[in-house]
Amino acid sequence: MLTLGRDPVRVAVLCSARAPGLAALLERSARPDPPYRIVTCVSSDPACREVELLHDRGVPLRVLDIHRFYEARRAPIVDRSVRADYDRWILEVVEAAGAEALLMCGYLYVVTEVLLDAFPDRVLNIHHADLTATGADGGPVYRGLRAVREAILAGEPETRSTVHLATPEVDAGPLLVRSGPFPVHPLAGEAVKWGRADVARAYAYAHREWMLEASWGGLLDRALELLAGGRFRVEDGRALVDGAPGPVTVEAARGSGPTTVGRGPDGAAAVAPAGVGDRGTAAVALSRAGEGP
């Protein structure tokens, strides 16, 4: 049973090839009387780039190659029944490390109830989009791996990142914290007008990297502080942070440029999508062209 607000919460990090912001968490974890400690890291990718960082900090890394796991079972990577078995493997590792919470940072796969049930309201995920921006169905507009590119091509003047509690529905769990704004450069709009998919993709990639480098460490640190301090609870599918609807905006985790931050009439931080769909067919065509963020 997790007792909050007393000893440091023992956190396992789950990542794929990298875990942006991990260095900041390890530094905080190593200070005297930290609110949390990073006790292990599990990567789905043998090419994980965090090996040296974790070794230097004395934090064990276990690589559980997800592709080899699926290949051994002759199953496609989207097979959720196999994913549950893979998640049981993860669970064995993190439980052996004494983890009390799970932080998904740069993890590219959907987790199942195996992990969600093992750590109720203690599986945190960071997503490179503002999950307060919702569509007609009430759900987040920008989900998935291409969220930054889709937001930029839709005409958003700025982007943000969000930390939320993971649920079976991807990128739709209760919101805890979000970054300040990262203004979109006018070049992005010009690339759409020119029909230059290559320029649009390159800009979206660079913009996303800016967000990850500048904000993820601070965002994840704040989210783990809230968890360790028992400062949020979930009611009716929504996180209440210090009694108010989440997410909390972390102004230190932001890009340069003008800031417009506030809470809406219901107390939640409010962001209205600007110009969604204004660029029409050109934006749709560019968003579907090739790979990218």
Structural class: alpha/beta
Strand proportion, as a percent range, falls in: 15-25%
Distance separating the two termini:
38 Å
How many discrete domains? Answer: 2
Please provide the count of β strands. 13
Helicity range of the residues? Answer: 25-40%
Enumerate the spans where pLDDT stays under 50 for 5 or more consecutive residues.
Answer: 257-293
Sequence of strands across the biggest β-sheet: 3-2-1-4-5-7-8-13
Task: Work out the helix count.
Answer: 9
Rg computed from alpha carbons, rounded to a whole number of angstroms? 19 Å
Instruction: Provide the succession of SSEs.
Output: EHEHEHHEHEHEEEEHHEEEEH
Overall mean pLDDT stands at: 86
Describe the secondary-structure layout.
Layout: E1 9-15, H1 22-30, E2 36-43, H2 51-57, E3 61-63, H3 66-72, H4 80-96, E4 101-104, H5 113-118, E5 123-127, H6 147-153, E6 158-159, E7 162-165, E8 175-179, E9 182-183, H7 186-194, H8 197-228, E10 232-235, E11 238-241, E12 244-245, E13 248-250, H9 280-287
Parallel strand pairs: 1-2, 1-4, 2-3, 4-5, 8-13
Antiparallel strand pairs: 5-7, 6-9, 7-8, 10-11, 11-12
Describe this protein's structure.
This protein has 293 residues and is an alpha/beta fold. The chain has two domains: 1-120, Formyl transferase, N-terminal domain (Rossmann fold, 3-Layer(aba) Sandwich); 129-160 and 170-293, no CATH class. The chain is 35% helix and 18% strand. The strands form three sheets. An eight-stranded mixed sheet has the order 3-2-1-4-5-7-8-13, sandwiched between helices. Strands 10-11-12 form a three-stranded antiparallel sheet, with no helix packed on it. Strand 1 (9-15), helix 1 and strand 2 (36-43) form a beta-alpha-beta unit. The chain starts with 8 loop residues before the first strand and ends in a 6-residue tail after the last helix. 45% of the residues are buried.
